[in-house]
Amino acid sequence: MRLFPDAPRPLLDLSTGINPVAYPVPALPPELWARLPDPEAVAALEAAAALAWGVAAPATVVAAPGSQAIIGVLPHLLPPGRVVILSPTYDEHRRSWEDAGREVAAVASPDALAGAAIGVLCNPNNPDGRRLPPSDVPALADRMAEGGGILVVDEAFADPEDRVEPHPSLVRLRSFGKFHGLAGLRLGFAILPLPLAHRLRRVLGPWPVSGPAIAIGTAALRDAAWTRATRLRLDADAARLDRLLHRAGLRGAGVGGTPLFRLVHEPPGLWQHLGERGILVRRFAQGWLRFGLPGAQTEWTRLEAALVAAGLPVMRAAGARAEATQSSGADAQDNAYPAGADPAGADPRPCDADAPGLATPQPAPVEAPRFDAAFRDRLDLLFRWRRDVRRFRRDALASGTLDRLIATACLAPSVGLCQPWRFAVVADPARRDRIRAIFCASNAQAFGRYDGERAERYARLKLSGLEDAPVQFAVFADRATPDGHGLGRATMPEMAEYSVVTAIHTLWLAARAEGLGLGWVSILDPVQVAQALDLPPDWRLVGYFCLGYPEAHAAQPELERLEWERRRAWPEFVVQR
Questions:
Q1: Higher confidence at residue 45 or residue 324?
Q2: Cα–Cα distances in Å, from 427 out to 346, 440, 471, 473, 475?
Q3: What b/e string do you get for 101-114 counting C-beta neighbours within 10 Å, with b at 16 or more?
Q4: Residues 366-416: pLDDT tens digits?
Q5: Do 197 and 171 touch, CB atoms closer than 8 A?
Q6: Average pLDDT value for residue range 98-115
Q7: What are the φ and ψ backbone dihedral angles of 335, each rounded to 5 degrees?
Q8: 12-18+228-336: which CATH topology?
Q9: Are 253 and 356 in contact (CB under 8 A)?
Q10: Pairing of strands 12-13, 279-280
């Protein structure tokens, strides 16, 4: 990069709000590169977008070579008159309207858009993440319609599962490349009233989107499972970035953001410092820095190291706390300091104006999702249909499935946010054979505990899917993790294992929701399993698991069906005090 010619390569570009873990591009037929796109394929793409976003009429969804292309067309498509833009925001909107000779005014309140011929806002806003509640958007369009105006809403950073309600005075723009991590594909959409949709198609011409973009976009928009898993991963990664920036003394003065980026006030010299270390973040005239999400663990480590090297006060304090924890033991922190004191000597209360960037972080207000009765009924059904599966088909799982399920599992609660779960994926045939041998020996010992009819029933049970399950993994608890600084574990260190169990149960339900079965193999010697997998001796085995598609589904769990035990009614487990 011209500004930082001596920065180490490769550069880590965090300046954009693009998903760093892109949708896996499927193999494409060669003819897609050789032929002009088929109009039916374009219609299928627009129908896939309509279905994904809850648009009842696919004809009102128009595909384009990026939402930026639509921004450039809108001044020539919409009626004449004064344009009012909710600001500060993405500046290409202002530039596009001014280049077309329109009068443009910037306002700071959504209410000020009413009365204009054209009102423009980004929701969520770029770059500060300001967001209007979904119900406010059509209400604002109603107010603009009273004066004959049209509202343009740029939803480039919108949650892809946000529903889109049609409105005769509302134009919505949706980006494909940001959430799906494929900005180079150049694909975006407009959702607009049908007469405007027809006009936009004529302006864009007969082949607005390439054949490969159509094929990839259609596949991605139809992949609801990937979308759901990616939303969860982005939320988790955004929370992780929040923690990192807060430890660096930045998040407390945070301006805002979305799951794809965070915006903070810039301490003097930080942009330059990061650039010299090959980390690019976006700087704004308001004194803001935008941090996109790192992708691989090496990128997270690189960003953290650069922030530590910047010498920001809270990061130095965090380093001091880490050293203190390593020297005295994590659990000692619970009682080593009086209430309200910070062991590193930093005042935990919000800092005053003389110390910018160090205030206690305050979460930005958000509209919580509403879970209606229908959702609760489906959730109850998921709980009731969870099974401990022993009989698997040998079909391979789709690429990325296990990663997606583990990402969901890592959203589980953990004591002190210590996140002690450690997943060991076992693909090596020799190690799998060793696990089967450990199971056989342990199972023989367990069988010896029974006699008579109970022994006969035990012999009829199938207690593992180790022979057929396409995916196997072990989950361990790392009690020595420094994360969480020992909070909540001094008196109950077993809370680490309990936290891991919540992650396992979360993964179990997520797998069942995708039609997959999970089997918990507990008849194993934990020490031998850790040795067979060559893992740290202080990692404690919580469970070994088989994952795959079940041979069949049963309305009743197998142990009930075979009368090994009955399920008792819940009141039997409750005592009153």
A1: 45
A2: 47, 19, 7, 8, 14
A3: ebebeeeeebeebb
A4: 667 888 888 888 999 999 999 999 999 999 998 889 998 999 999 999 999
A5: no
A6: 94
A7: -125, 10
A8: Aspartate Aminotransferase, domain 1 (3.90.1150)
A9: yes
A10: parallel
Q: Is 187 exposed, middle or buried (0-12, 13-18, 19+ CB in 10 A)?
A: buried
Q: Is this prediction's pTM over 0.70?
A: no
Q: Judge whether residue 296 has pLDDT over 50.
A: yes
Question: CATH code for 35-222?
Answer: 3.40.640.10
- pLDDT of 72 higher than 80: yes
Kindly give, in sequence order, each residue whose CB lies less than 8 Å from that of residue 82, ignoring residues fewer than 6 positions away: 102, 103, 104, 105, 116, 117, 118
Which tens digit of pLDDT belongs to each residue from 115-125?
A: 899 999 999 99
CA distance 273 to 270: 5
For the chain, give every domain's residue range.
Answer: 12-18+228-336, 35-222, 373-573
Contacts for 459 with CB less than 8 Å, ≥ 6 apart: 447
The Cα–Cα gap between 536 and 82 comes to: 67
**Which tokens hold the place of 516?**
């997959």
Paired tokens of 262: 């965070």
How many whole angstroms separate alpha carbon 440 and alpha carbon 424?
Answer: 21
Would you state the torsion angle of the CA atoms of residues 38, 42, 48, 50, taken in this order, to the nearest 10 degrees? -150
What is the spatial distance between Cα 1 and Cα 509, in angstroms, rounded to a whole number? Answer: 46
* Four-point Cα dihedral 493, 497, 498, 504, nearest 10: 160
Fold entry, domain 373-573: NADH Oxidase (3.40.109)
- CA dihedral angle for residue 354, residue 355, residue 357, residue 358, rounded to 10 degrees: -140
- pLDDT reported for residue 461: 87
Structure tokens at 451: 């006699």
Token readout for 268 is 């003097």
> Average pLDDT, stretch 122-134?
90
At residue 39, φ and ψ (nearest 5 deg) are -55, -35
